[in-house]
Amino acid sequence: MSNGPGQRLRLPDAELTWRFSRSSGPGGQHVNTSDTRAEVSWDPATSSALTPVQRDRVLVALRARLESGLLTVASSRYRSQHRNREDARSRLEDMVAKAAAAPAPPRRPTRASRRSRERRRAAEQRRAQVKRERRGDWG
């Protein structure tokens, strides 16, 4: 699945595994009776959503977050299971998209122009002159 610039990465529903549990977040007594916390797991090594190059990037970039080969994100930010599902999926997709993105090209060093170097030196000399003039015979 190709994801060009400006195009959001979308992981297939069939590749996602969901678990729900009671949330410790906001909700009062409602929290004690509802499974609103959403946890989504995804296996990057077997995913069809990524090209082989992207898969390698993701596996390297997110290796510290992988547990038994699965990338897991949980959300209990909201009071409803539906919103927590959307939040967890969105965070997972953002994380994968960032990891799969091609690295930025290295910065090519530039040099200061002759004029800017001259301006800097002139400013330094003006400042030195001001300080010299402040020195006086205080004796």
UniProtKB/TrEMBL annotation:
Prokaryotic-type class I peptide chain release factors domain: which residues? 10-133
Q: Which residue windows does the record flag with biased composition (Basic and acidic residues)?
A: 83-96, 121-139
Q: Where is this region: Disordered?
A: 1-49, 75-139
Annotated transmembrane regions: none
UniProt family annotation: Belongs to the prokaryotic/mitochondrial release factor family.
Which UniProt keywords are given for this protein, alphabetically ordered?
A: Hydrolase
Kindly give the PANTHER family that the UniProt entry links to this protein.
PEPTIDYL-TRNA HYDROLASE ARFB (PTHR47814:SF1)
Annotated InterPro entries: Pep_chain_release_fac_I, Pep_chain_release_fac_I_sf
Q: Where is the composition biased (Basic residues)?
A: 108-120
Under the GO molecular function aspect, what terms does this record hold?
Answer: hydrolase activity
Name of the protein this chain belongs to: Alternative ribosome rescue aminoacyl-tRNA hydrolase ArfB
Polar residues: bias regions: 20-35
Species in which this protein is naturally found: Aeromicrobium halocynthiae
Checking Gene3D superfamilies in the record gives: 3.30.160.20
